[in-house]
Specification:
The protein is of the alpha/beta class. Strand 1 and strand 2 form a beta hairpin.
Length: about 550
């Protein structure tokens, strides 16, 4: 496709050279000798050349558009794949708005570097060379005089490139920051309204907008100086041609037709030079965008989901040995934590905020790896297992009950992409969600809204539990699955969870201790250390800290 594009560009460029020759023939031959019979044939040739050139331009535009869109899709696909395979730790340091800007804005700008450089840049350069060759063949002395401004134009382009590159990068970073601010506003609109923080967020947005305005102004100030300066130099070449050409015509060294031909050729010479100025501007913006895109594509540490052993079949025997971990190396979240989970046991974890409960789940799913110690599954260290099959063996129900914008059906299929209609309804029935889904006009095809906002908290949680039923994994992780729902929803969710936990190894983080009193073992965590373990009754007797947590949970229990 790229070869076809270049072939069409070459043919179109050659056709523009027909008209200057015809003009010279009219002025030097047809008009002086009054050969009226040649007017129509010469004019027809000019019309045919223009028509074919525009037809080639049409085809080239269609080919160029197809090529451009394929490049965008390919680059976006590569970027999306890379982002989806980067480790969780990378996302901890990134702004969602910045990532979206790179995907939506920087990718098209990056492909324009290639298209402008190859298609526009090559075509313009080729036209300059062909026209210059024709001019040299016609009169090399006059051509050298006309081309006197071109070294200054080339120097101006080089200086502009060096000047504008950092300004373009700064403008893109400011645009990214503005989009990040807007994304946070949209994502947190309920919090903004509940705290009446509209004015505060408006001021933050205006601040980011002003930074972008200043950087864009600096960028366009450079272009405002560069573009007319280069146009002036090109016009200077045309004036030189008129002055020198007129004196040569008077002296009899050049015909009037020859002068007109040169005037047209100079136009065809400086038009692609002017186009190259625009290409230069596009390249500077595109290179800044490309740097931001390839900063992601060149990231090291991409997650490898396939390298390692397949854990199947999984019995669910887990051993956590002497774990030490911190999201920042200098601050430990877990310190020397060790315990065992036997197959099909239900093991619960309690403790205050920041005690490391959720971190244990993050380590088991290998979102992170511990700095010291290890976790084994059925006797094999999970670092030796392929991440993909390991995560396939785990169903993870989180506290926030995240749903993707789309339908109930599409969110359920995340747990089992090939599930049948009957399997979907069975999972909903097991999750105590069948009734409210059937009550909706569109049933499984009802929209849930962004992050599931069109459903209640209890409904969202039951959909995520149904998703876990569909996955049917041997290991179940429940992270405070009932902490944010009312009593009625909690009762229904607890029913579903008891069904889900049957014949599975279950690890449960509990906010309400009433939900884990039947657990086989309860582990008490405090400040990243394992303080005690036992049944609910044993811990009430032997662990004052657990008894304190139980008393607080009783006081805070909703009525």
């Amino acid at each position: 496709m790229a070869l076809l594009q270049l072939s069409l560009a070459i043919a179109g460029t050659l056709l523009i050279l027909v008209f200057p020759g015809i003009v010279q023939r009219f002025i030097d031959e047809i008009i002086p000798s009054k050969q009226t019979h040649l007017i129509w044939s010469a004019g027809g040739l000019a019309v045919a050349a223009f028509l074919v050139r525009e037809m080639l331009f049409y085809v080239r535009t269609r080919v160029n558009t197809e090529f451009e869109q394929r490049m965008i899709i390919d680059l976006r696909s590569q970027l999306h794949r890379k982002i989806s395979h980067l480790p969780i730790a990378w996302f901890d340091r990134q702004s969602t708005g910045d990532i979206l800007t790179k995907m939506a804005d920087d990718v098209p700008a990056t492909q324009r570097v290639i298209l402008e450089g190859i298609e526009q840049g090559f075509t313009a350069t080729m036209q300059i060379l062909i026209v210059a060759a024709m001019m040299f063949a016609a009169d090399w002395k006059l051509t050298l005089i006309i081309l006197a401004p071109t070294p200054f134009i080339a120097a101006g382009g080089w200086i502009y490139s060096r000047w504008v590159s950092p300004r373009s990068t700064a403008a893109r970073e400011a645009a990214s920051a503005l989009n990040a601010t807007l994304h946070d506003t949209l994502a947190g609109i309920r919090q903004i309204k509940s705290y009446t923080a509209e004015n505060l967020k408006r001021d933050e947005f205006l601040t980011a907008s002003n930074v972008l305005r200043k950087r864009q102004t600096h960028l366009m100030a450079a272009w405002a100086f560069y573009s007319p300066s280069m146009t002036f130099l090109g016009s200077l070449g045309l004036v030189i041609l008129l002055m020198v050409g007129a004196s040569w015509c008077i002296a009899g060294n050049l015909t009037t037709g020859g002068l007109m031909r040169f005037i047209l050729l100079v136009g065809f010479l400086y038009e692609p030079i002017a186009r190259l100025h625009g290409v230069n501007q596009t390249l500077m913006n595109g290179l800044s965008a490309a740097k931001r895109v390839f900063d992601i594509l060149d990231q090291e540490g991409e997650e490898d989901l396939e390298t390692g052993r397949d854990p199947n079949p999984v019995t669910g025997h887990l051993v956590f040995e002497n774990l030490r971990f911190g999201y920042r190396p200098e601050v430990n979240v877990l310190n020397d934590v060790s315990f065992e989970v036997k197959p099909r046991q239900t093991v619960a974890f309690v403790g205050g905020t920041g005690s490391g409960k959720t971190t244990l789940f993050q380590l088991l799913t290998r979102f992170y790896d511990p700095q010291e110690g290890r976790i084994t599954l059925d006797g094999t260290p999970i670092t030796e297992l392929a991440k993909g099959p390991l995560r396939d063996a785990i169903a993870y129900v989180t506290q926030d009950a995240f749903l993707f914008a789309g339908t109930i059906r599409s969110n359920l299929l995340l747990g089992h992409p090939n599930a049948t209609e009957d399997e979907l309804w069975t999972a909903l029935r097991q999750a105590c969600a069948e009734t409210f889904v059937k009550a909706k006009p569109d049933g499984l095809d009802s929209q849930v809204g962004e992050r599931g906002v069109l459903l209640s908290g209890g409904e969202r949680q039951r959909i995520t539990i149904a998703r876990a039923f569909l996955k049917d994994a041997p290991i179940l992780l429940l992270d405070e699955a009932t902490s944010a729902v009312d009593n009625q929803s909690e009762h229904l969710i607890q029913q579903a969870l008891k069904t889900l936990q049957k014949d599975r190894t279950s690890l449960v983080i509990a906010h309400r201790l009433s939900t884990i009193i039947d657990a086989d073992v309860i582990h008490v965590l405090r400040q990243g250390r394992l303080l005690a373990r036992g049944t609910h009754a044993e811990l009430l007797e032997t662990c004052p800290y657990y008894a304190e947590l139980a008393a607080q949970a009783e006081q805070n229990s909703p009525t």
